[in-house]
Design a protein that fits this description.
This protein is an alpha+beta fold and 803 residues long. The protein has 35 helices and 15 strands. A hairpin with a 2-residue loop joins strand 10 and strand 11. Bound molecules: zinc ion (4 copies). One zinc ion binds next to helix 26. InterPro entries: SET-MYND_domain_protein, SET_dom, SET_dom_sf, SMYD4_SET, TPR-like_helical_dom_sf, TPR_rpt, Znf_MYND.
């Protein structure tokens, strides 16, 4: 999803192979990105553009009144089944396409919002419906909904005003049948009674307001590094590059960095990408774009669609407006192209749009002003980037420590500014020439499109220069000088993203709603650049945890960090998830360095290289001792003579994984009985050949707990979850966030099963673990606190009940 779609990548590979050898050599050698980019501009031929255009046409990003009608009807079907959340999503899809029935779509969505209890949002949609010309004959209906919302929100005077409006409408209502009139009048009198009752009971201030103020975290900002706390400092040496170090002893759970993304792009939904052009119906699947604001990533309720496209939806008018001003006016007509070229291209474009042409141009020019130093660096055999900075670079380049930290402002300050983004490592010399060619060609494609369609991004200049530009554009197939600068910067950003892109993730709870026990998964919401968090080096055994809120990242200590120790986080390959050999391969491939973290040194130092991932996962089917060996495995207990081929065992493992996935599907389809039955069979199968600590065994136990919880069998659910927790603890450690999530589920199960004292214990453990990793504001932490409060309010007799 980050890189261009495979068909375009394959096309670029073919183009690369067909280039003249001398041109290929030239491109392979071109170290300054400017040269790479400029060499590629004339290579992007009309035939390439045509091919890309055909690929892009498969993504549906425009507006279509027929789609609006289709989604509205699908929404109505769900609404009738009382599936209001699903109906809401479909109505939102409907309003993102313009149609003559917009007002009805908004009105229907307001009804769904009403049933879901979102009264403020309901009122907004009622206003939107009316602004879009909601039919007069239906007015009384929507006004009564408005009255009910206002009453429920305690806004009595406004409610009274609307009631009298409805009454006059009904009095005038020529087209109302007498039954409708009667129904409406009865409803009004009911509402009047409600309003009267409300008036006599004072409305309390919403609790949430005072709560957020209380929970504001203490924030002592760092004078030298923006967005960092004073407990960290920025250091530099030749082998670690720039890195962050603790200036004092840090406790688990302390925040270290809290940074707003410089730029972030919502990951598109799969269904947007793979639209089959032959299909006549529209996709009703819910994607990231339906669930989260295109700009701030907030969870969407009554989304505000972009006026120009159907793919950008916002949480509010304000977000829509800000996005339009800062980047979307340029991006809007490029939607299909950007989907085809992948998220990295999109982030690269948005980065230069957010920074603004003046800033980009000044840094690019400054960079080339340093050309002399570049040649000096080349002469000593180092690349430009390595001499400037080596964030993730561990090769010893020079023994002498630099006196100044690169890319800091005069007074040694480091800011999360465009300058910091611009100077992030590109590793240009380490990417394969084919990859650089693909990136360059993709960026040229964007530049060509910008040249054709939209020149407002360059409007920092005068009006004259814009018309000059237009003249230039129409007469030449070349890129304008401004777009050459932007293109070079975008190519730079695209290559940087390879190492510096941060996935913004969120825990999404399953939509099934059938179970009281959370079934959640981590989903990738967006790809972002965080210049300050990018200062953190990698470790396979990190001392921090990372969480996101909207487009902001928070880095917290996950264990005690003594003063002077480096602060590190994991780029992905974690000690608990893969063996050293696999981690090394991944890090070398994507981040171009050989990891020398403690976990790697320990594992590589011992003889059991790489066994953590593959060894000891199978057990003997007759005596349950572990199976050992390479292609043929032998039971490790002396008494047994069992021999089994590794291929056979791996096939068995694959079959079991398929079965477990099937069971999970049954759980999601609200068939817990069948799911439990299948999972119990899986468990027996697993016992026959998998070691008891295998993660798949843990998954089976976890799903069993989920199934039993859905059936209300709390004791069985708790029993299976405890098995799962044991396995998760063995893999990730007892204070890991993974264990925290499992403990949270156990707390929910015990809470629902009224196992009061055990629930209180588990709540305590889960809260301790989760608040270290996710902070006190975390939704699960808050829910745990509510569970505790609720249990403590139970009558004493219940608390002392023998369990
Ligand atoms: Zn927003
Ligand atoms: Zn748009
Ligand atoms: Zn490592
Ligand atoms: Zn055996």
């Amino acid at each position: 999803m980050d890189l261009p779609v495979e068909k375009w990548a394959a096309y670029a590979r073919r183009r690369w192979a067909s280039l003249e050898p001398c041109l290929r050599r030239k491109l392979s050698l071109a170290v300054p990105l400017r040269d790479t980019f400029l060499l590629c501009v004339p290579l992007f031929q009309p035939a390439d553009e045509e091919f890309l255009h055909r690929l892009a046409a498969r993504s549906w990003v425009g507006k279509d009144p027929r789609a609006a009608l289709f989604y509205k009807e699908e929404g109505n079907k769900r609404f009738q089944k009382k599936e209001y959340a699903a109906a809401l999503m479909l109505y939102s899809k409907a309003v993102s396409h313009n149609s003559p029935e917009m007002s009805l779509c908004y009105a229907n969505r307001s009804a769904a919002l009403f049933h879901l209890g979102h009264f403020e949002d309901c009122l907004e949609d009622i206003d939107r419906a009316q602004a879009q010309g909601y039919p007069n004959r239906l007015q009384p209906k929507i006004l009564l909904r408005k009255t009910e919302c206002l009453l429920l929100l305690g806004r009595l005077e406004e409610a009274a005003g609307v009631i009298s409006k409805v009454e006059s409408k009904i009095a005038m209502g020529q087209s109302l049948t007498s039954t409708t009139r009667q129904i409406l009048l009865r409803k009004i009198s009911q509402l009047k009674v409600k309003a009267h009752k409300k008036e006599s009971s004072p409305v309390s201030v919403p609790e949430a307001l005072s709560k957020t103020q209380k929970d504001l975290e203490f924030w002592e900002e760092n004078g030298k590094i923006s967005s960092a706390f004073s407990s960290v400092s920025l250091n530099f040496n030749s082998c670690r590059g720039r890195h962050l170090v603790a200036t004092k002893d840090i406790l688990p759970g302390e925040s270290l960095v809290k940074e707003e993304a410089f730029v972030s792009v919502l990951s598109p939904g799969k269904s947007l990408l793979l639209q089959d052009s032959a299909k006549t119906t529209w996709d009703t699947r819910v994607t990231n774009g339906d669930l989260h604001c295109h700009r701030c990533l907030k969870r969407l309720l009554a989304s505000v669609p972009c006026g120009g496209c159907s793919y950008a939806k916002y949480c509010s008018k304000k977000c829509a407006q800000l996005a339009w001003e800062h980047y979307h006016s340029t991006e809007c007509p490029l939607g299909a192209l950007l989907l085809t070229l992948g998220v990295f291209s999109h982030v690269a474009l948005r980065t230069v749009l957010v920074a603004g042409f003046a800033e980009v141009s000044s840094l690019v020019k400054q960079f080339h002003g340093d050309d002399k130093e570049l040649h000096k660096a080349e002469a000593t055999g180092k690349s430009w980037d390595e001499t400037r900075d080596s964030t993730a670079d561990m090769e010893g380049l020079s023994e002498k420590a630099e006196p100044l930290i690169p890319d800091c402002e005069d007074v040694g300050q480091y800011r999360g500014s465009y300058q910091a983004v611009f100077n992030l490592l590109t590793h240009a010399e380490k990417h394969s020439p084919e990859h650089k060619f693909l990136c360059s060609l993709s960026i040229v494609a964007i530049c060509k499109k910008l040249q054709e369609r939209d020149l407002t991004i360059l409007s920092q200049g005068s009006c004259e220069s814009q018309s000059e530009l237009k003249a230039h554009v129409t007469t030449s197939a070349e890129l304008s000088p401004e777009l050459k600068i932007l293109g070079e910067a975008m190519l730079r950003h695209m290559l940087q993203l390879h190492c510096n892109a941060q996935a913004v993730t969120s825990i999404r709870e399953s939509e099934s709603g059938a179970s009281v026990v959370t079934d959640s998964e981590q989903v990738r919401l967006a790809t972002a650049l965080f210049p300050v968090a990018s200062l953190l080096n990698h470790s396979c055994d990190p001392n921090t945890s990372v969480t996101f809120s909207g487009t902001a990242i928070t880095v917290r200590a996950s264990q005690p960090i003594p003063r002077g120790q480096e602060i590190v986080h994991c780029y992905g390959p974690h000690r608990c998830r893969m063996g050293a050999a696999e981690r090394w391969q991944r890090l070398l491939c994507q981040y171009f360095f050989e990891c020398r973290c403690q976990a790697c040194l320990d594992e590589l130092g011992s003889d059991v290289t790489g066994t953590a991932a593959t060894g000891d996962i199978f057990c003997c089917s007759s005596c349950h001792a572990s199976m050992q060996g390479e292609d043929v495995l032998r039971c490790s207990s002396g008494a047994c003579t069992l021999l089994v081929g590794r291929d056979y065992l791996l096939r068995q493992l694959q079959d079991l994984q398929v079965q477990v996935r099937t069971a999970l599907g049954l759980l999601k389809d609200k068939q817990p009985n069948q799911a439990v039955e299948l999972l119990m069979r899986c468990r027996v199968d697993a016992e026959n050949f998998l070691s008891a600590e295998h993660m798949l065994v843990g998954e089976i136990e976890d799903h069993l707990a989920q199934g039993y919880a859905t059936l209300g069998k709390w004791q069985e659910a708790a029993r299976h979850l405890r098995c799962s927790i044991q396995i998760v603890e063995a893999h990730h450690g007892p204070s890991s966030v993974e264990t925290g999530h499992e403990l949270f589920k156990l707390a929910q199960i015990l809470f629902n099963g009224f196992a009061v004292s055990e629930a209180l214990c588990t709540i305590q453990r889960a809260e301790t673990v989760l608040s270290v990793h996710c902070g006190p504001q975390n939704a699960q932490v808050q829910e745990l606190q509510e569970m505790r409060a609720c249990l403590l309010e139970l009558p004493r007799s219940l608390l002392h009940r023998v369990e």
